[in-house]
Amino acid sequence: MTRSFCNDLHSGKPAIATQPAMETKSIWPPLPWWNKYPVGDPKFCFFFHDVNTLEVLPGFGWDNLLNIEMGQVLATNYSRCKTTADGKYLLPDNAFVIPVKRSKVDMSSEVFDRWNSYTSTTAHSINLHASYSVVSGSFAEDFKYNKEKQVGDKAVTTRVQLRHFMYVVKTHPESSLHPVFKSRLMQIAAELQNNRTKQAWYSAQLLVREYGTHIITSVDAGAALVQETHIKENVLKDKSLSAHDLKVAATATFFRSLKFGAGFGHNVSNENVHKFEKSRTASRVLTYGGPPYRSKFSVQNWENSLTNELVAIDRSGDPLYYVINSATLPSLPEPTVFRLAKIVQRAARLYYKVNTVAGCTDETSPRFNFDANVNDGSCHATQTNFTFGGVYQKCYASRFNSAGNLCDELQHKNPLTGDFSCPEGYEAVELLKPQSGERPVVTKSYHHTHCRKLCRPCGFFLLQDCCHTSCQNIFHYSMVYIAPYWCAAAMTVGENSGMLFGGVYTSHDPNPVTGAQSCPHRFYALPFGSHSHVCVSDDYELGYQFSLRFGGFFSCSSGNPLAVPNKNHQQKSGKTTPKTSPKGNLAGIVNGPQSCPRGYTQHLLSVDNECEINYCVKANSLAKLSRTAVRRPPYNARPGVSPKATKTLMVVGINGEVWYRNNSNADWTLASFATQDDDDSSEEMVSEDQTKPMSQGAAIALSVCATVLAGILAVAVYVSYKRREKTKEYRAVSLKEVLLPDEKTPLNNNNTSEIS
């Protein structure tokens, strides 16, 4: 249902340009001289037809928790100058359109009697069919607004909308990736191939942060008028109005305000409309596409102003890692592509898991948790109390310690025992167990510039000193292994024997108890993991009012012994200081279920070494303390750079090609290797370290320096020659005095005779 054209203004014959995007090669017949735009630019096509560019396009990333568009995933190119079948809009090469011609707008009316039954107006399809559909869209602005109105005002929501479909725009399966997005994938692939897995994991989280969880593959282009009204819930409870009556009354009220001229085919009771308007607590009108809503707004004016004012009124898509395959990355080996897609999938799943808030979702329950988006059965659970036996953490150094001894800050003993152990009656539980034979690591790296003054003899006869400052970039790196433990009650413990739990905080997230990265009054922080802290206190008199009912920890590699369904560990709830029941059988158990006990809700502490750590507190303990905002990746600090890591990363392709990153523009370039059999053009490829031709000024300076040096050498040779001549003359005189003594000086008075 699309057509391609690039009509030459002289001949009128069509000529389809098939060159890549932004390429300036000419097409036949010759282009007019005044068309200065390259093939692939949408402005290039405007010389052949008067059309508008369709702005509602698929191929973008999508955050399915926030319901917002993210970075561009697929490349757009207009080299074929395609348009819609009606010739109104210009399309990119990787898209096609299914026209939806309607003679009238679609009308619908809905009633949402529960806040968690609310659906998005413009992203219903992608929210419904996506993974983790229960939490999809739960952090979107319209979802949060509706939840606050329904829960806070004890209301139900009615929604009436007019939807005008114009086109369904889809992407071709063989669409190419956007260069920036592809460069990010190549970076992660290089880190995987170079065994920099922690850096690859960090980069994958950044990719999800900037491109979302999904890719939009189809959009419904059109416009919509929506009115949402919140009315008191007792209207439905006392059956003064049925759900059908609410829909009819809401529709009639909306159409009357819009001066809808097509007539309304339902018999509307004025009494029902009056009841509807009287019980209204809030109302708002939203426009998607077309002109903005204003006074004396009418449907006719809205219909007449839709041209070039289209927006996406619904979206469909696939998980982001679907586009990471051998078709979109043909130059990479299949194992690398598989690992690349897998790590992006893991990062997206972690984004969902971190923002899955389990708790009581029934607003009529006293244990209702406003932030919860998944019901965990805690609304009617029996309360269970446990004691907290403290935490401690071991640390093991490695041979890398130039950035400092990290164990000084990470290692600590249990305050209750003064040692790396648990009190009597408690069982030590290792929270982060070694995976693949390796313990969790903590790294730190930084660069330090060290400068010093260097001097050398210079000047005439080297009688002066020439000095300069030499600076060196020194790399520091430290790595340690950690083993965090917490103490779970395993048998009878005395009252006030444990510690108070005052919440947790990390280097990225605040403590929900204080709203800051700190502990409550009379509590102090203990390191727990690589970048987390646990607030503890033994001051039951002054600190108990700030404490939380503790229900254990669990992670991806360790369970929660307190969640074992055992009546011996339950005690009737009460405000008194909790203590466990006798004769527990948790001794030796270090792996319980990865969940919380009944009556407790789980909350994410951190993601440490690619492993999620959760803690359990009494249901609804944190509901009145904060409102949870979406927690976006990355969830760990940037890993330190190992001294073994190379600065330049390369990716090895299928046929042995080597891709390297151009540091000037962050693009990945296919390397070319010259051989002896190459032609003369290969000689132009020189490395940065190769000698370059000398400039004229440098040649003159070198000539002057050589002349001066030759003069100095000549003087030195002459002085040396003179010294040698004087030495020879002195030696000759001395020898003559020895061999020919003075006659007046007797050699031996006893053995001489006068010669006649």
TrEMBL record:
Residues 564-586 are annotated as: Disordered. GO terms for cellular component: phagocytic vesicle membrane. Pfam families: MACPF. The keyword Transmembrane applies. The chain crosses the membrane at residues 698-721. Residues 30-355 form the MACPF domain. One of its GO terms (biological process) is adaptive immune response. This is MACPF domain-containing protein. It comes from Pocillopora damicornis (Cauliflower coral). The lineage of its organism: Eukaryota, Metazoa, Cnidaria, Anthozoa, Hexacorallia.
